[in-house]
Amino acid sequence: MNQTKKWKKWSGVLLTTAMALSLAACGGGGGQTAAGGGKDASTYPEKPIVITAPSGAGGGLDKTARSVAKVMSASKLVEKTITVENKPGGGQAVGLADFVTQDKKNNYKLLLPSTPIIINNLKKEGNSPHSYNDMTPLAQLTKDYGAIVVAAGSPYNNLKSLMDAIKADPTKVTVAGGSAPGSLDHLTFLMPAVKAGIDPKSVKYISYDGGGEAIAALLGGNADVLATDVSGAGEYVKSGKVKILGVSSPERLKGTFKDIPTYKEAGYDTELINWRGVFGPKDMTPDAVAYWEEKLKAMTQTPEWKAELETNGWDDGYKNGADFKTYLGEQEKMFKEILGLLNMAK
């Protein structure tokens, strides 16, 4: 009788232990995700990361992507190697299309585009069927502004003299930009031009694959004016090779650009903000999304990143993934209206 009781007691203990081990095993499996190749989320990332800049070398996107890679490494926020690849073409459309179609589930690929990805999807003659909705917004990093730039020896010393010259004879002034017609650089120039009473269709605009090629055209005498972003022109202003006639910011910038009037100050009531941000693929796993949102936020708070902002003339525009997506929707609505006024909307 006593032996029977003892057996029941020990069999109950064994059964309880077996159930506990089984539950523990199940709990461990539930924490596994695809980000680490089927391993626990804490193992992500397990290999190098690539950031794609959908433009040529030397422009604002390229500089921003390389700044992210440099700061992540210098601050030791990300221990894995981060490299930057350039995929220029179509005012970011080529790099965007490649990312959306080829890297839909690749947790180790990121894209760092800017405002043109919205515009190119909205234009009547748009060259991109893809938009921010085909990716996962992780963080907005910077705010940059448009700039109308001429060579140091140009006869134009202010926006009014330039706009007057175009009104007199549009064929004699060539405007270069690093984005496709109807995209960001083009709009950077057209918005004040329209306010000046110029027919936007009369402006002689030539597009190049990225800001680097466009500024080379200006310095080489193949263009009279460059429409670009402030950060892309900064080093040339400091070296005395160019002068900026106006910027699209709501108010005057600081530092190197403090003496440059805004469009509004020059008499043209308009402004334009260019964001730059980081996206993951559409089907990025939740743990990878959480990883990058955390790391990108932490990066923007480092002294190294703040130094990059100051050096390049970028404004801190940090937004987390959710806020960034909301802002993208608002900007999409605004550009629909602008392109409609220019008769360029779909």
Describe the overall structure:
The chain is 42% helix and 18% strand. The chain folds into 2 domains: 44-143 and 274-341, Bordetella uptake gene, domain 1 (D-Maltodextrin-Binding Protein, domain 2); 145-257, Periplasmic binding protein-like II (D-Maltodextrin-Binding Protein, domain 2). The chain is built from 11 helices and 10 strands. Mean pLDDT is 87; it is low at 1-41. It comes from Brevibacillus centrosporus.
Describe the structure concisely.
Belongs to the UPF0065 (bug) family. The protein is an alpha/beta fold and 346 residues long. It has helices at 2-30, 60-74, 93-102, 116-122, 159-168, 184-195, 211-219, 230-238, 286-300, 303-312, 321-341, and strands at 49-53, 82-86, 109-111, 135-151, 174-177, 204-207, 225-229, 242-247, 273-281, 315-320.
Shape: globular
Radius of gyration: 26 Å
Helix content: 40-55%
Tally of helical segments: 11
Q: In percent, how much strand structure appears in the residues?
A: 15-25%
What's the main sheet like?
7 strands, mixed
CATH architecture annotation of the largest domain: 3-Layer(aba) Sandwich
Give me the count of strands: 10
- Distance linking N and C termini: 89 Å
Q: Output the structural class.
A: alpha/beta
CATH C-level of the largest domain: Alpha Beta
Q: Provide the CATH topology of the largest domain.
A: D-Maltodextrin-Binding Protein, domain 2
Count up the domains. Answer: 2
**What letter string, H or E per element, gives the SSE order?**
HEHEHEHEHEHEHEHEEHHEH
- Low-pLDDT runs of 5+ residues are 1-41
Give the CATH H-level superfamily of the largest domain.
Answer: Bordetella uptake gene, domain 1
Q: What value does the average pLDDT take?
A: 87
InterPro entries: BUG, Bug_dom1
Pfam family, one: TctC
Family: Belongs to the UPF0065 (bug) family.
Organism: Brevibacillus centrosporus
